[in-house]
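ok so heres the complex, two chains, lmk if somethin looks off
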Amino acid sequence: MMADKVRTRFAPSPTGTVHLGSLRTALFAWLWARHAEGDFVLRIEDTDTKRFDPDSVAGIMEGLRWLGLDWDEGPDIGGPFGPYTQSERGALYRDHAQRLLSSDKSYRCFCSPERLQRLRQEQRAAKRQPQYDGACRHLSHDESAARAAVGEPFTIRLRLPAQAQITFHDVIRGDITVAASTLQDPILVKSDGMAVYHLAAVVDDHRMHISHVLRGEEWIATAPYHVLLYEAFGWDTPAWVHLPVILNPDGKGKMSKRHQGERHLPVNVQDFMTAGVLPDAMFNFLSLLGWTPDASKELFTRQELIDRFELAMISPAAAKMPYAKLEWMNGEYVRRLSSQAFRSVSTPFLARAFGKSETAVDQMAGLDYVLPEIQTRVKTLREVAPWLSWAFKSAADMEYTPIDMLIGRQLDARQSAETLEVCQAMLEEAVPFEPKVLQALFRVAAQEQDMKLGSLLGPVRGAISGAKVSPPLFEMMAALGRRECQARIHRAHTALVAEDVARS
RNA sequence: GCCCCCAUCGUCUAGAGGACUAGGACUCAAGCCUUUCAAGCUUGCUACAGGGGUUCGAAUCCCCUUGGGGGCACCA
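and the predicted structre for the whole thing:
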């Protein structure tokens, strides 16, 4: 046995993408390994061939890398205790099952799935706990061996020892005691010869020297089987750490997509990636979901989180996923980005939103005027594009409907048109065509017209952006350039005049 | 139905018997700032699920009730 080195693992089954709850489990396991300068292992649990999705392994790795969780051993990089994919470890499990069989700690069960299902139904109907009735428990060695030799299909079940109750220690919750009467001899090996999770996970965790098993609390109910298996093999158990589940925002059940309806709240790692959540923000946010390193603050660097992480400080209570807080935190991280960094992380989102190549977006020099302004206005990167739709159009594409967007506060259509005329005339004077110069000019104009700056700017904002709400005007204008601004104002003016005629 | 886990503001949480007139953050509301919308700053609202114990003293320990969650597969 190795020294008491901390070794944790993340052991997803490749049946889809990484779910929020799994991601948090992976993060905590990683934090604990890094905190203790131990190892973090990635293991793929694909013993269920029916549900296996070959593409999902890549997705899992992509998600972990995105969050910044690197693994020291895993299917792609190997390691001293490989292979790290359970489907490649079948012989090992069969060998261990055999050991249990020879020592009579397990037995062959010839019951068909149909019989078992019927049994469960009857028990449920009788309001009793669905449980294996132990039909094959006392088969003689000879009969068992003979039936197997003839080729009759069988599973292997663990023979639970006779004891009143089983107690194990959970790092977060303390001792948990379960009455043995609620347990049944669990299947270890399926009739196709493949190990079931319980066997595979226990054998692997032991062989891979996992010191702390972090997993969701949905595993508490089956933990006694694992403890009993360790006992049957004569091995020391790892420390058990059952993390609380993450609930839907409405508190109804575990986080899942089906509960979100039309709202499409992000649930899988990829959802958060496409929503434009920053990995650093997600890392910070997820760390604080169930754990508080310091009650007086919310924003922590990765290193601070690693340094302070403590398993025993994790809350045992399930939490409803606080999306609003994630958004807020992501906004904090967005605002802390340098202008350059913000531009580069936004580029892919802009390219996708406007159907352009990233290079094309990169070449739009004018964006540098407005992007820093947008940086304070978004919480996620996906929100950047809607602030910039005006930048990806030409004057000819501008549509001013409803027309109100061109009408200034306390002005009518005619007055708004006149305002545009004044501004139009002014644009030639703006040299260079920069936000500061434009601002100075417009302030003077507002004074001369005896108008509030806001009123004067209203129609121009509409003309330039095609909306009543937009990024700061002068930055937009500088981004577009003099010619384009003139063209838009002209077009808007025409629309206003037409409106004025229609109204009178 | 049975077993297990959990329970502080609307939400995420601090709190490990006295430092609690229960702290922070998000959300929400108001004000300031202001070029629309944000951001920023200031202020405000709101909680120990209920009932019994233990104790000089309980949000903190115990029990019951209630509520919520998880589990009860040849899935993980």
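quick notes: Chain A has a mean pLDDT of 92. thats all i got rn
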